[in-house]
Amino acid sequence: MTCLICGTPYRSIPTWSKLFLNQLDSSTCTRCFEKFEVSESNIDFTDFLGTPYEGTVDSVFCLYTYNEPMKEFLHQYKFLQDVALAKVFAGKLQQVFQTKEGIVVPIPMHPEKLELRTFAQVDELLNAAQILFQHLLTKTVSDSQGSKTKKERLKTSNIFEAIQTIEATNYILFDDIYTTGATIYHAAKILKDAGAKRVDAITLIKG
């Protein structure tokens, strides 16, 4: 096999999980994959206390930190449109989602940005991990939220709308990166206000 990151040939190490549980390979050599740092930081929910978003998210789990190798990966994947890199974290994402129960809902891109980017990076990460998902939300704001502070993001009107019926069940929001958390909370509020019983969130990266 050829590593998707460095391009060098490597041999995939067989494991019992791959043989009997159909666990996906990372399509990446060990040397490259070990450069990604597992996130061990806890998510701080105190900034959302006393706001309309308090209690809308029940839990957040982030797989990796935003270190230099991850920054390079995200740039190559999102902005240089290297869609094949979606397979790098397929196995790890598959494992995490197997521990959760609920309807998986990817954080959507605004249609204008999707046309510019040519592919939905969050959807492709789920597709590579063979995770079934439903598009229940649409993004109504096209401007970037990256330059705004957490307080500024929370003061803006909700940037999402529900496009399908939300049932009284559990949902799992998925996004590529968690920075201020405002995006996740905006999406979770739409689901909770529409009747969702529980909303958890999973992201690939903790920014």
Topology at a glance:
Elements: H1 16-20, H2 30-33, E1 59-65, H3 68-79, H4 90-97, E2 103-106, H5 111-117, H6 121-128, E3 137-139, H7 150-155, E4 160-162, E5 170-178, H8 182-193, E6 198-206
Parallel strand pairs: 1-6, 2-5, 5-6
Antiparallel strand pairs: 3-4
Keyword list:
alpha/beta, 8 helices, four-stranded parallel sheet
Description:
α8 links the parallel β5 (about 170-180) and β6 (about 200-205). The chain has helices at about 15-20, 30-35, 70-80, 90-95, 110-115, 120-130, 150-155, 180-195; strands at about 60-65, 105, 135-140, 160, 170-180, 200-205. The longest helix has 12 residues, at about 70-80. Helices cover about 30% and strands about 15% of the residues. It has a four-stranded parallel β-sheet, with helices on both faces. A two-stranded antiparallel ribbon has the order 3-4. It has about 210 residues and is an alpha/beta fold.
Short recap of the structure:
The protein is α/β, with parallel strands linked by helices.
Largest sheet: 4 strands, parallel
Fraction in helix: 25-40%
Oligomer: single chain
Question: Looking across the biggest beta sheet, what order are the strands in?
Answer: 1-6-5-2
Shape: globular
How large is the share of residues in beta strands? Answer: 15-25%
Report Rg. 17 Å
Average pLDDT works out at 90
Number of strands: 6
Structural class: alpha/beta
Spatial gap, N to C terminus? 31 Å
Q: How many DSSP H or I helices?
A: 8
pLDDT < 50 runs, ≥5 residues: none
Q: What is the ordering of alpha helices and beta strands?
A: HHEHHEHHEHEEHE
